[in-house]
Predict the structure.
Amino acid sequence: MATKVIPWYKRKHGSQVKTDYAYQHSKTVVKQHTERKSSSKSVSQVQAQATEAMAEPAYTIPVFRQRTAEETEEYQRVSTNVGKGLAVIQEELSRMRITTKARVDSLNIQREVKDMMAKRPEFLDDIPKMPDFLVALRPHTVWEKTPVKLFCTVQGNPRPIVKWYKGGVPVDPLNAPGKYKIENKYGVHSLIISRCVVSDTAEYSAVATNQHGTATSKATVTVKRASGAGESCHLGLVPHLTDIHPSKLEVTLLDRFKVSFGVEGGSISLVCSMVVIPNLPNVPPITQWYRDDKLLKAGKLAEMSVGGGAARLTLPHLAKDDEGLYTLRIFTKDGTAEHSAYLFVSDAAPSVAGAPGAPMSVKAYDINSDYVLVAWKPPNTVNEAAITGYFVDRCEAGSDTWVQCNDAPVKVCKYPVHGLKVGRSYHFRVRAVNSAGISRPSRKSDKVTALDEAESQRLQVIKIEGKYDIVIKDDDLEGYVTIPGEPTDVHASEIFKSYVVLSWNPPSPRGRAPLWYVIEKCLAGTGAWQRINTAVKLQSPRYPVFDLQDGQKYQFRVYSVNMYGSSEASAPSEPVEKVDEDGVPSAPGQVVATRNTKSSVFVQWDAPKSPKSLMGYYIDGRVVGAKEWFPCNHKPFKHTRFVVHGLIPGETYAFRVQAVNVFGLSEESQESSPIAVEPALGKGVEYATPSAPFGITMLSCDGASITLAWKSPKHCGGSKVNAYYVDKRNADSLVWKEVNQEAITERICTVENLTEGTFYEFKVQAGNMAGVGVPSDPSAPMKCEAWTMDEPGPAYDLSFSEVRSHSLVVLWKAPVYTGASAVTGYFVEMAKKGSSEFVTLNEEAVSHRYLQATGLEEGATYVFKVRAVNASGVGKASQLSEPVCAKALPGTKEIVASVDEETGDIFLSLEACEICETSKFIWSKNYKPIGDCPRVSVSTKGRTSRLTFTNPDKDDLGRYSVVVTDTDGVSGSHTLTEDALNTMLELSYAIRHPVVPLKHGLNYEILEKGHVRFWLQAVKLSPSVSYRFIVNDKEVTSGEGHKISHDVATGVIQMTVDHFTRANEGTYTVQIHDGKAKTQSSLVLVGDVFKAALKEAEFQRKEHIRKQGAHFSEYLYFTVTEDCTVMLACKVANVKKETTFHWYKEDEEIVPETPPNVMSGACALPIPLFSRKDQGIYKAVLGDDRGKDTSVFDISGQVFDDIINAIAQIAGASASDLVLQCTPEGIRLQCYMNYYTEEMKTVWKHKESKIASSEKMRIGGTAEMAWMQICDPSDKEKGHYSIEISDGVKTHTRTFDLSGQAYTDAYEEYLRLKAAAFAEKNRGRVVGGLPDVVTIMEQKSLSLTCTVWGEPTPEVTWFKNEQEVASTEHTKVTFDGGKFASLVINQVTPDDSGKYSINVRNKYGGEFVEITVSVYRHGEKIPEPKLGQPKMPAATPAATPAATPVPRSPAPPSKTPTPTPSKSQTPAPSVKSPGSTPASTPVPKSPTPVPKSPTPTPKSPTPTPSRGVKSPTPPRFMKSPTPPRK
């Protein structure tokens, strides 16, 4: 565990004293000495102290604690100023180091001079001597991250050269800049290893060589790791060492696994390579893997291996359960070697978009024989909808079938599963639910077996003599028990909104019989107990109850039951109410983010004030400026500090934290302050001081001075390089002398006061805020000899920009030495690394100092050199460039030229793929730094830099480039052309003088109530938009009669005019101002357009008023039913019971048989047998106390034709085939259908020729059929006949072939019927005059007179009571003129009462008519006539003589009165007939029946009259008319 850290300003221990002393001492040195910096150093003790002072202490992440309010305020004050304070301290420290170095070097020089003066001259003689170590190397054992210095003193003549080796391999400081530092001062050779690590453990040797021999000194350096050193780096998660496993192996970890990222369902391997001494294949080192603080075991979910120089952990089936800090612990000879790194596992893609992530850490607790309590951890929900509950599934071990345990989602992260089978093993898993769907299932739990926990507790083990174990069950001690005891301690162990879990202790004594439990509940205090587990035989002392009502308190008691009976009830539990015991935690406190590395941030926060059984925390992050949050961890983290990895370098983030418990996630904490992802100074970067410069080259020499140039250090050390120091020496001397006392800021320096003809060596050191770095390697010896050639000197400082896969840009600086004339151009040469074949890239010299090399091979490495050209020729080649690989950096982006959407500024922008704290964006035009220029301005935000043009014109055309310093070559360029500039200028003008774009211009629409809405729609509106409506040059505001509004979301601006009148005619205009944008739209509403709008508005106004009362929702329309009834229908609305409805035709009311029911919402008027007579104007009137509404329907013209066509469509479809019917007049063809009217478009054809109605061919019909009759047919009328019924769209055709036998049979039938009709016409008959009943008083005279007719003249016979009456004085019979027949009875007496009849006959037939006569005496009441059943008269053909009555054998008397005689078919004068009947009305029967016709009559839908000679179809004028409707 990390120790408590005291702030720097409160420290009072020794380290602070040393620092203060060093500071005071440096101030004194600065005051007393102004000499320049010397290359020589102090003795080894002074150097060791300096090295120790400069070494950085190991960084330890502190353990953050809860602070008081005062401490929190002090912490915040210090944290805000610590940046400034740190910069000041580091700057002062740098000055101190430089001053101290100068002072120490000065003292060393003085001491060296004194020593040399004191030496005897004989020691200066050149005496040959092989190397010899006066002071040999000694071994060192140091702690990890501390420096170590190996030094030795060697003598020899000539002076020996010393080289250093590590394990036999030469030590090269350039291969690990800053790692090693080699010095040689006054014969003392030293090797300084900074910040040692375990891998620095090795044998080091110093080898001294001269021409006389070699000497070697060796020493071992051992680097140890302090116990618990890894804990501070991983927030206290590294597990503590519990067991020591002895090992004789030395293990050194090499390549270590880093922070890793995986996805659910995937796999990942964590590998750590190592060196094992001795490396025995059969004896690998002992390794342990931990996740957080839990030791992992090898299995299906974690595969472990060690050997082959590596330890490996493979997780083949990743789940969020696998997230955590993984630690590899290897037991070594000296203890343990450890390494830790975090593994993040993110959610897999959801099965349904928006569904939550899967739960995790599913475990089963409180395992019983049929009950298990399942618990889990909730997933993090960042951008998904909140979780509404969970489903728990179970699966028997060995099966793949999952069964859902709960019907409704449970809202807490616990669920009691009951109903398990004893002895079975189960796995469990959980799925989360939200409004979008169900998550993927969690990883299944470990296998659990449903067993009774109490059984193991009932066993006792007794040891005998320490050797034998005797197991005794409690059953053996209880004796023979039948009925068990009652359970005890009934209580609620889990109380939630969803359920309550009851728990109790098993009974004692229990008995040996199998035991189960019965539970009862009651409302607290009522005593009304009710059993609740009726369908469950409960065997565990646990039971979940789900159906309790909210707000009610319950008590429970339990019975023990076995085969012998039930125990007494347990004591009732305490009252239990189904409420949440607790809720989610409160939100965590203040979140503070600090820098860690270039891709991670250290986040810490205060614990919530109400933790409420906290499980851990979820940390979320987002890029500043973005709305979407992303999860930083996917499994609850237990501590209040966390390192967020995987961030984009240079990007700015904010963080928030949520606390987690069994109820879910708390509210989010407040966001942290934004923080840029950059390494902390001295942490996260390997070096504090710059690495060594390199590439020292000579640019010019005049015989007394040399101009040098060099290249920047590869590593700046975390802060900007702001100083260079140059040292020189004669090539044959070992003493270095400083060239500059003041720091040089440029990478070029002229070294003066040199001796011509002498060879010199140079070295350069770079300095930054942290101090002066290691010096470069000495340059090659350079001769101080004046340059006199006419050609120019070498170009220098070759650099690269815009390195891409197939191109790059080479840049250089002009040569210092120009030669005899000015430089006119340059040639660039290129070769692949390792090749000496250089290719000149440009055929002609370029005048500028850059060139783009194209056509490169991706991934290949190249070197370049440049030659300058003047009038004299091509000059010396530059120093070879550093090798450059033709490959773009990952995530490289190009410069973008665009226009700012808000300001209209034209700009160039680059988003860097990599950046650090000290990085700067350097913009150039044509590769010349722009600097401060009024034409452009540069702004930088985060990883993006923007170059904005002030007033762009043609002078700004050219190639622009940008380089990001302190990166691995992040750069880009863009050529600004005239066309592109003109395009952006147009866009800029449009943005600076913007127009609000419109989707729709000003328009109008008529609303209900007659309101008129004027509106337009913009593509986009901001909330600050303003607008005006102007009507006829006058602004209209929202008020009485006008409503003006807008909707930002849809972009609609509208004005509603409540009352639109003639005064509203004119021009309407809308003016819009939205920020800088504006527009207007007009609408001219005059003339016919205005009149149409006004008419529509008035109509809508009336419609609104109409609809306030009962009204027609659908006006009158017609339909035709299947029976061809025309229905006038309408629909009504807003009616009530009092609403009336009336039908009218031509203003005459129609009263239908069925009154209209307005409450049904629809009314209809049937018009059966529709024809032309039904034309007219129909009207429906609907009304009540709220007003009335009228619908008019004019059935005429086209409407009438449409109705007829609709009828024809149904009738034509129902038409039967043509039927042959013979009549006395001729042969008739009939077509039956649902309905026929002559207005239908029907055509009869004979042999495809249309038939016109005539005397020969008569066309007609009835309501049931259409017919065509051939009168007096002949052979000409033979042939094919058809009828065509047209409905305006389709023609329905029916045919009949009247030829051959069909015609012959029909013709014969026609002749027969014609003869029968003739006989019927001429037979004898009573035309009229006789009554049915006669009542007469006695002594009166009775005269029965009638008119008879027949051709020839018929015979007339009278009968009384079926006896012929002879003519006497009392009864006189007369027949005058063959026309009038009479029977006169003089002075009637009661004996004359009876039934009289007359028989009229000729050769064609006759008729028999009966009269009832009643005689009453004077004074008697006139008797009521008693009529018998009237008999219909029947015509008897003359061809049937047997039917003629003879006097001797009269027809049997009628037993009922005969009806009043009706009018005959043949018109004749009527004597007493009160009226007339249609021709089809039958007349009284004749006493002789009429024989049947030998030819059967075809069926007809109408009844056939009794007279066989009549046509069964009534003539056309007899068609039944449509009954009138009032």
